[in-house]
Description:
Layout: H1 3-17, E1 23-32, E2 39-49, E3 52-62, H2 75-85, E4 95-99, E5 109-113, E6 118-119, H3 130-148, H4 152-155, H5 166-181, H6 187-198, E7 208-210, E8 219-222, E9 225-229, E10 236-238, H7 241-251, H8 266-277, H9 284-307, H10 314-320, H11 322-333, H12 349-356
Antiparallel strand pairs: 1-2, 2-3, 3-5, 4-5, 6-8, 7-10, 8-9
Amino acid sequence: MTTEDIADRLTGWLRKQIPDADDVRVEGLDRVTFGHSAEMMVLTVVTSRGGHDSCRDVVVRMRPKPPALLEPYDLGRQFTILRALEPTTVRAPRALWWEHTGDVLGRPFLVMERVDGVVYEMDAPAGVSDDTVAEMCRSLAEQIAAIHSVDLDTTGLKALDDGPTHLVRELDHWAGEMARVQRGPLPALERLHAALRDSMPAGCPTVTLVHGDAKPGNFAFAGGAVSAVFDWEMTTIGDPLTDIGWLELLWMQPVGITSHPGALGVDDLVAHYEAVSGITVANRSWYRAFNAYKMAVICLIGAMLVDSGHSDDKKLVLAAYGTAMLTAIGLTEMGIDDKPADGPVMPREDRIEAVLAQAD
């Protein structure tokens, strides 16, 4: 489908969503290549009423072509979460419309407001002072605390999942995903999973909304403050310390905001989160190992999507190298020195060569 076809189809659909307008048109539609999950487009919706035009910059987030990296992929759930967060202090984009049939663009999509701000996915903030970057780090911790302070009853989000069973549900889910895609025995990942299950802590006594992917690259910044929190695909109800373990694991990687000399150290970041949230961060090694396992399995899924020919994404080939690395990190966090063999965690060599040989 061409960009012009997409614009025409969206225009017709948006006119039905805004029936009181004299006219609706789409301008500046551009496809965005970012991340590995949903596909996105940015555009401006121009609404005419009584001879006056009003403009709203929006993002269209489409369900990725199945099989996706994260399945089942539920855009409707994400729409519900974003709508529920509107009255809270969480700086999530406002969800506007939801197309669930796939009849308009071939796949379901949601439309949300475009929020000003810069995402530092890979590059460090340029021309930004150390003090401002430290302020950005504190704001990031404060937004995670805001997520964890959402009132689950008044927002209706308590119905998303069974909070007290969160850790068991997560271990079962990622073990199931590992089994679904594996080509053979995976001794190292299996050892890590067993160790996590055998030593699983009681968990945080406070059940909260959990973002599920609280990495620095999912936060946009305007000045020294977070302007938006993105990517709610893995959001659930449960143990908030899983978000902190995920953040700690990614904070070790010197990319994006963490590569700036003004970035807070991970201990200072966690301390600030504790101060603003009132939640004590315990069992840090276990939660880092748990998230290393989760991330390793996600990398494995990406590798097998490439291996099976479902994806030719070079980023997934590069991420595939993370499975063994993350498994080793998890085993180290669990105090296991005798690391077993990885097993088949990479795409076959011919698939790697074919994908990497493609022109950009």
